[in-house]
Amino acid sequence: MDVPDILPQLERLDGEIDDLEEVLEPFLASIPDVSNKLPLLDKAKLYVLVTYALESIIFSSLRLNGVNAKEHPVFQELTRVRQYFEKIKNIENPPPKPDQSLNKEAAIRFIRSDLADNKEVNTKLTEMIAKERAKAAIKAAKLGEKRKAEAEPEPEGAEDDDEGSNEPEDAAEVQSEQTHKKSRKQKKKRKGKKDKSSS
């Protein structure tokens, strides 16, 4: 079996690498000048890209020379540089932060438990809880209607029906009135007990 003569291809490759070095020399020498003119994030991108390019060339050279490059420290460097790519990507497009909102109902329960002996405050807190629950019911109903509307496309010429949106408000008003009636009954019972005890 004849082995083909690859000496001419190797000489051509060597010449092309020399040409590449000449072309890249001005660029690599001017990186600090170029990076000083860039914003911070673009400067980080430039340095990471140049590092990755150089490490990739070394990795490819090792593979061409028959070295197991995945066990070489260059492979660890490539992995580290890829992590920098991910960090830059996360800075450019940050993941959405979860909404942090106050759970008013829980706060009211804490206050009520601390001021349990003060009946007037307790009554007001009960009313506030009822209002918060009503608001939550309205919000949930609107969200449900919105999801339902997104899921089912309306036929052409169909008009919006506003009657459905009043139902949650009516439910909230009914719940608020019921809570208010309960608090009035509790006040009357307390007054009746006070009158009996004072007699």
Automatic annotation (TrEMBL):
Subcellular location: Nucleus
GO biological process: maturation of 5.8S rRNA; regulation of gene expression
Family annotation (InterPro entries): Exosome-assoc_fac/DNA_repair, Sas10/Utp3/C1D
GO cellular component, one term: nucleolus
The keyword rRNA processing appears for this protein: yes
Transmembrane intervals: none
Basic residues: compositionally biased ranges: 181-199
Stretches with biased composition (Acidic residues): 152-172
GO molecular function: DNA binding; RNA binding
Segments of skewed composition (Basic and acidic residues): 142-151
Stretches for region Disordered: 141-199
Keywords from the UniProt entry: Nucleus, RNA-binding, rRNA processing
Similarity comment: Belongs to the C1D family.
Name of the featured protein: Exosome complex protein
